[in-house]
Design goal:
Shape: globular
Number of domains: 2
CATH superfamily of the largest domain: P-loop containing nucleotide triphosphate hydrolases
CATH class of the largest domain: Alpha Beta
Distance between the termini: 32 Å
Number of strands: 25
CATH topology of the largest domain: Rossmann fold
CATH architecture of the largest domain: 3-Layer(aba) Sandwich
């Protein structure tokens, strides 16, 4: 693919923090809305594997919120994703995760800083100013000293208490750290979005998503120099060249119909995964396990993640769909299930002191716990025959779940050996049952390009 000079010089800015919970998400969301109000088309990205923040960014931009993750994806795929975004957008807002230099080890591998260097994105640092003045300058200066090659182009102060405190910090950061302060948000001026055990409540579940996003945009427009942030984004150098790993749809390919579970209980899908399925020859049929009483005519099913435990009673009450899906699986329907999809296909979910029958296509029950049972990156290798992926294929993914399997009563057949991660336990993941492969591992199509064509082939079979 050939891009113009303007596209290759795609304006982009990365919003980072010194730690988690400093206000990166609120600033990124508000900035996205503020930029849209100037008439710009914004491409939103989230660093890391998080589904929920990316979905909120997508809602703010009225465009798919995508992920950039140096662990899950090769560098070329990350660059190509940004280059593709340049074809239909004017500026990219990339939200970092955790602290700027926090990665999987002591040297910050796969950190937000590493991503910023890879994509040549100038960094705007969100700093919690609670009960501090000149110390903020020391923090910013420390970040510059730790990685002099990283461009920290500006600072946004969060949780400022008084006008005097703001003035002192602005002067100290400018003089001591050599970085301009581009905005100051006062304490309690921006309301936090509601959250629960996996993070924010998803935008598809939030009753006031549009109002919350617009309020954030108004606050950022008032307290942050949006034009200065845009100038920072426009200072980004041309994107590096990359070998494309994103496929394009072959119009000659025969189409198959793949169902996708999607509603308030199931919304954890990377946009690239859905696009990759379409490019490989799939027509997607979205199915709501909460409200649909029958399956459409489909050749395979993609059961992604979400919060089935939050909607267990309603999912269980829809007996018609549960019964039909169990029958279709018994007839050989290929199903790829991740986390929440595994929970829905199980015999039952135990949560909130009750037991809620589910589809019953897997010979397991699932127990919801109060603490994470698996959280982090996954390294796996396919080591058993299955309907989707070849034996020997290495896979990198991500898991974050508070549930675990109860007693299955008999040994489970699994097809993924884990070198890193928890999965279903015992160093294993990927339960194989009939045409199902179900595990806690979420895969990303840019990191596992074999996945989407494999699901389409299984549907054709």
């Amino acid at each position: 693919m050939t891009l113009s000079i303007a596209e290759a010089g795609f304006p982009r800015v990365l919003i980072a923090g010194l730690a988690g919970d400093t206000g990166k998400s609120l600033v990124s969301l508000g900035l996205t809305v503020a930029l849209r109000r100037t008439g710009l088309r914004v491409a939103p990205f989230k660093k890391g594997p998080d589904f929920i923040d990316a979905a909120w960014l997508g809602a703010a931009a009225a465009a798919p919120g995508r992920n950039l993750d140096t662990y899950l994806m090769p560098a070329d795929a990350i660059i190509e994703s940004l280059r593709r975004a340049a074809l239909s957008s004017d500026v990219a807002v990339i939200e970092g995760n955790r602290g700027l230099f926090d990665g999987v080890d002591a040297v910050g591998s796969h950190s937000t800083a590493q991503l910023a260097r890879l994509v040549g994105a100038p960094v705007v640092l969100v700093v919690d100013a609670t009960k501090a003045t000149r110390t903020v300058a020391a923090q910013v200066l420390g970040c510059r000293a730790l990685d002099p090659d990283l461009e920290i182009a500006g600072v946004i102060l969060n949780r400022v208490g008084t006008a005097r405190q703001e003035a002192l910090i602005r002067e100290a950061v400018r003089k001591d750290a050599g970085v301009p302060v581009l905005g100051a948000i006062y304490r309690l001026e921006i309301e936090h979005l509601p959250s629960r055990h996996l993070g924010l409540v998803t935008p598809v579940e939030h009753p006031g998503t549009i109002e919350a996003i617009e309020a954030l945009g108004e606050a950022i427009s008032r307290r942050v120099d949006v034009h200065a942030v845009l100038s920072v984004a426009r200072s980004a150098p041309p994107l590096p060249a990359a070998d494309s790993r994103l496929t394009t749809r072959d119009p000659r390919a025969s189409r198959v119909r793949i169902g996708v579970l999607f509603d308030k209980a199931f919304s954890f899908y990377y946009p690239e995964n859905l696009s990759a399925l379409q490019d490989a020859g799939a027509e997607l049929e979205f199915v709501s396990p909460l409200s649909d009483d029958r399956l459409p005519a489909i050749d395979a099913l993609y059961a992604g993640g979400g919060f089935p435990e939050e909607h267990a009673a309603a999912l269980s009450a829809n007996r018609a769909l549960r019964t039909e899906l169990k029958r279709r699986v018994a007839e050989g329907l290929p199903v790829w299930a991740e986390c929440g999809g595994l929970m829905y296909l199980s015999g039952a979910i135990r949560c909130r002191g009750g037991t809620f029958p589910m589809v019953g296509a897997l010979p397991v029950t699932v127990e919801q716990k109060t603490r994470p049972q698996g959280h982090g990156y996954v390294e796996a290798r396919v080591d058993g025959p299955n309907a989707f992926l070849p034996e020997g294929l290495p896979i990198r993914g991500h898991e974050f779940h508070y549930s675990r399997l109860g007693d299955a009563g008999a040994p489970l057949e699994t097809v993924l050996a884990l070198g890193r991660g928890v999965g279903v336990g015992g160093g294993r993941d990927g339960i194989k049952e009939a045409g199902i492969v179900a595990g806690y591992t979420h895969v990303h199509a840019l990191g596992t390009p074999e996945w989407a064509p494999a699901l389409v082939r299984a549907a054709r079979g």
